[in-house]
Design goal:
CATH topology of one domain: TIM Barrel
Strand content: 15-25%
CATH architecture of one domain: Alpha-Beta Barrel
Order of helices and strands: EHEHEEEEHHEHHEHHEHEE
Largest sheet: 5 strands, parallel
Helix content: 25-40%
Strand order of the largest sheet: 1-2-3-4-7
Bound molecules: zinc ion
CATH class of one domain: Alpha Beta
Distance between the termini: 6 Å
Shape: globular
């Protein structure tokens, strides 16, 4: 039975994580990880100018991860990445990889709301910008996401249906209509540019989500399309580095996957591992 011993989606105390990079590595070693990828949030000046890796922190972050990589060489493979939101101008140049994310609903006049932020603000935004239609909001969310992945292909697609985050408490929409239809349409477009989707347990650890992102029907559809998956804990605190990694293999198997990806131990970014 496969035990996950790697994580591609790790934050640090440079932005919104609570643990320094070194503590994440120490925890990874305790857990017997063979590789660990850092993916701190890139800056996004048009949305939240103070959020993400603004200079000079971007440079400090990169230097620290590269220096830790050298220090821990031979014990664990460290990868340098970023989590880049579609609203960020960050190019991803000079990195080993980046995770492409969509955290925002936006409209043409520059108005926006975070889909993983304050639920009242998001609800008010959907009322204002989409006449209260969650179907239209969901359609916009996935269209913008697919567009971004096509224009700036990431190595990994992040928490695909993050728009469900507050819905689990607020019950704004059923998770079997537009979510599935528009999600599938976005997947059809995305897979032309990126074949790797994360199975993200971070929401289970941090906000009590009932399952990883994405929901099972969308994950199964990704497999039908021939896509690949990589489990991630979207970790913000060292002690949660392997949170819900015990259920992730079965979650992927239930969607029909017989193998998944992990960050490599050597030169190759990804290695394939059997889930059977
Ligand atoms: Zn994210
Ligand atoms: Zn993240």
């Amino acid at each position: 039975m496969y035990m996950i011993r790697s994580n591609p989606h790790t934050h640090t105390d440079y932005v919104d994580g609570k643990s320094p990079a070194r503590d994440m590595i120490k925890r990874a070693l305790e857990l017997g990880f063979t590789s660990l990828g850092f993916s701190e949030h890139a800056y996004q000046p048009d949305i939240e100018p103070l959020y993400g890796l603004t200079d000079p922190n971007r440079k400090r972050y990169i230097n620290e991860i590269l220096s830790l990589r050298r220090e821990y060489e031979g014990r664990i493979r460290i990868w340098l990445g970023l989590e880049i939101d579609r609203m960020s101008p960050e190019s991803g140049e000079g990195l080993d990889y980046f995770i492409g994310a969509n955290h925002y609903l936006t409209s043409r006049n520059g108005d926006f709301a975070a889909v993983d932020g304050d639920a009242d603000l998001l609800e008010a935004y959907v009322a204002r910008a989409f006449d209260g239609s969650w179907d239209r909001a969901i359609e916009r969310y996935f269209k913008d996401y697919a567009d971004f992945v096509e224009k700036k292909p990431p190595a990994i697609i992040a928490h695909f249906d993050l728009i469900c985050k507050s819905n689990r408490k607020r019950h704004w929409f059923k998770e079997d209509g537009a979510l599935i239809d528009c999600g599938k349409e976005a997947m059809r477009l995305m897979i032309r540019s990126c074949r790797v989707l994360e199975v993200n347990t971070g929401g289970m650890a941090r906000s009590g989500q009932p399952c990883p992102y994405p929901v099972q029907p969308l994950l199964a559809f990704w497999r039908e399309l021939g896509g690949q998956v990589i489990p991630s804990s979207d970790c913000h605190r060292a002690h949660q580095l392997d949170a819900f990694f015990d259920i992730a293999p079965e979650y992927m198997r239930a969607a029909g996957f017989t193998e998944c990806l992990a960050l490599g131990k050597g030169d190759r970014l990804f290695e394939t591992v059997s889930l059977m």
